[in-house]
Each structure stands twice: as structure tokens, then as C-alpha cells.
């Protein structure tokens, strides 16, 4: 399965909120590849103005604006068949601890405004469904793995304000359906890895040995440290944290497949690779990619953040069986793409 039908979106238009963001960029590319017309909206609050490869695409229109402007989003939705709700204030793990209130308050306002616009646009309009981008952090407080769709309502709520708000996104989706019959699909990406993510505005510099970082996302941060010659390599905590690193283009395929699927109506999906990797395994692979096999890998542990979840492992059965989606790109192949990009981005002063 897992195939892209050329022109599947012909004649349809999708509004993508947060289109200048990390995952948003991959989603726009996937939609355009499937033949959709795309309207993107972003206020550039995370990175500042950015240039995308598809900016001049004939089926892409960009609107610089704030998603909290309900009238603006409603006007954009009048001509759209689908809405991908991806806008959010988000950063790396340092954001969780530096801006806990801003994350909660801003993202609640973004989500409420997004739902308000969808509720307004639905009667008599073209809107078929809202696809909400949630997060693996809804499973932050679990004590059993893998996390299956539905566990988020059985386990204790997330402890971080970011995880709690992402769970609230899912409640918004279901409440908008319960009261106003706004159809939805919820997707939960796990640990997106890819290119195009710059230094976020407002990121707090985190000292990590002799290197100060401002991204606090484990893959680009580790690559930066290795490329800057850090030895031994500093890792957050003991390095035994388990993650499922998933390529951005794979996630975009899953998100758009969920958008298109009739079987995804009012359903939720974990979107992830099935492969578990510890931070130390990731660090050693990055080390080898950058240095070759001849240099001994050595590391030291930095103090862990409070909300550095020790284990996030999804069950991916539902996405495979219902959507025909698998995230097949290996971590090795991802790093072959991302390491050169980070090296060039460092040279260009982007990160």
C-alpha cells in the first residue's frame, strides 16, 4: 500500500496552519505532490521569515497572519476542503521549562480560534474535515508500552504544560464534533527528524559542555556538538531514554494519508517508525557519521530536564492497518540527509 496516487488532490484546496514550521513544511510539500492546492498561514513567530522551496509553486498561496485571528482563518477556510491544524508555539525541551505558561496559554488560544473558524466555515461551505496535529507527549505519564490509541484517556494526564495542552487539542477536536459536528482526524507524530529547522526565536541557550545550544532537539544538537569537536560528547541524562525517530517526509505521508482516508473519520493515529532507539545509540551513530569508524566514542552525562520523558514507544498497528502507512526511512538514512544539512546550516549561520 503506502503509495502516492498522482493528482489525488486535484481540484481540492487545503489550509495548513503553521505552514512555515518544521512539520508544516513537509506537509505542504506532500500535499502539493499529491495535486492539492494549498493555502499556508503562519505569523513567522518561531523562526522569523523563512524561504521554502515551494514558495513560487503555482498551487501554493501563503498568507502571513496570526491563526488566533478567527475572522482571517474563517475567510481562508471558505474556499478550502480540508484544514490541517498544525500551528503551535513549540520548541525543544528547553521550551517546556522556560515558557510553560506561554506554551499553554498561547496554544490554547490558537486551538480555540482554529476550532471557532472551522465551526463558522462548516455550514454551507466546502470544509470536509479538520486534521489535528497532536503529539506523542500525550502519553508522557504512561507506565506501560507500547502506547496504543486510547491510552491517553486511561493514563494520568501529562505533567508538562506542553503535553497537557496537546492532550487538550484532542479534546477540542472531539468537543467540536460533539457539539457542532466538525469532522476530525487526530495524528500524533513521534520525534520528527529532518531538515529545514532553524534556530527558534526566543530559544534559550543551554550550555552543554563547551558548546552552547539553542535548539534543544536531540538530533541537530548532537550533530552540532560532534561537528564542533566536542569530545567527550555531552548527552542529556544517562542516554538510556528511548525514542522513535521518524523522518519528516514519512510523517507528512502519514498525515496526508489520514486527511484523505474515509476510514480516518473521527479517528486518531500514532504516526511513527516502529524502531526504538536510545539516545546513546543515536549519539554513537551520529559520532560515526561525522568522524568515521576510527575515532573512539566517549560521552559524559549532563543533568536531565524534569520533563525529559524516559520512554516513548508507540503502537503503530492502527496506522498500518487503517491507513496503510508505515514509516520506513531508517535512522541511518535520515542522518545521511540531516548531517550534511546541519553542517551547511552551521556554515550559513542558520543554526
TrEMBL record:
In terms of Pfam families, this protein maps to:
Epimerase
Q: Where is the NAD-dependent epimerase/dehydratase domain?
A: 14-271
Record-given protein name = Nucleoside-diphosphate-sugar epimerase
Q: Which PANTHER family match?
A: BIFUNCTIONAL POLYMYXIN RESISTANCE PROTEIN ARNA, UDP-D-APIOSE_UDP-D-XYLOSE SYNTHASE 2
Amino acid at each position: 500500500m503506502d503509495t502516492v496516487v498522482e493528482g489525488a488532490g486535484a481540484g481540492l484546496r487545503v489550509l495548513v496552519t503553521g505552514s512555515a514550521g518544521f512539520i508544516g513544511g513537509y506537509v505542504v510539500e506532500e500535499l502539493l505532490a499529491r495535486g492539492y492546492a494549498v493555502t499556508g498561514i503562519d505569523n513567522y513567530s518561531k523562526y522569523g521569515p523563512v524561504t521554502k522551496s515551494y514558495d513560487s509553486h503555482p498551487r501554493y498561496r501563503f498568507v502571513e497572519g496570526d491563526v488566533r485571528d478567527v475572522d482571517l482563518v474563517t475567510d481562508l477556510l471558505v474556499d478550502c476542503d480540508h484544514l490541517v491544524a498544525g500551528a503551535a508555539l513549540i520548541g525543544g525541551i528547553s521550551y517546556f521549562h522556560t515558557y510553560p505558561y506561554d506554551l499553554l496559554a498561547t496554544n490554547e488560544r490558537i486551538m480555540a480560534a482554529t476550532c471557532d473558524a472551522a465551526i463558522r466555515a462548516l455550514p454551507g461551505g466546502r470544509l470536509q474535515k479538520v486534521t489535528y496535529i497532536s503529539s506523542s507527549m500525550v502519553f508522557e505519564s504512561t507506565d506501560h508500552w507500547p502506547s496504543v490509541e486510547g491510552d491517553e484517556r486511561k493514563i494520568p494526564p501529562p505533567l508538562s504544560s506542553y503535553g497537557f495542552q496537546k492532550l487538550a487539542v484532542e479534546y477540542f477536536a472531539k468537543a467540536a464534533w460533539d457539539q457542532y459536528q466538525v469532522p476530525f482526524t487526530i495524528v500524533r507524530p513521534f520525534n520528527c527528524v529532518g531538515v529545514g529547522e532553524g534556530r527558534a526565536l526566543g530559544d534559550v541557550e543551554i550550555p552543554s559542555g563547551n558548546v552552547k545550544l539553542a535548539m534543544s532537539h536531540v538530533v541537530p544538537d548532537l550533530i552540532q556538538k560532534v561537528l564542533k569537536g566536542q569530545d567527550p560528547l555531552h548527552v542529556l541524562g544517562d542516554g538510556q531514554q528511548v525514542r522513535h525517530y521518524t523522518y519528516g517526509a514519512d510523517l507528512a505521508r502519514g498525515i496526508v494519508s489520514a486527511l484523505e482516508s474515509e476510514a480516518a473519520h473521527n479517528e486518531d493515529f500514532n504516526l511513527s517508525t516502529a524502531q526504538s532507539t536510545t539516545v546513546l545509540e543515536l549519539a554513537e551513530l551520529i559520532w560515526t557519521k561525522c568522524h568515521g569508524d576510527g575515532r573512539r566514542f566517549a560521552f559524559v552525562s549532563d543533568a536531565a530536564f524534569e520533563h525529559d520523558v524516559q520512554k516513548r514507544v508507540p503502537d503503530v498497528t492502527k496506522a498500518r492497518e487503517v491507513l496503510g502507512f508505515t514509516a520506513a526511512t531508517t535512522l541511518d538514512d535520515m542522518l545521511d540527509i540531516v548531517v550534511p544539512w546541519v553542517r551547511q546550516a552551521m556554515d550559513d549561520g542558520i543554526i
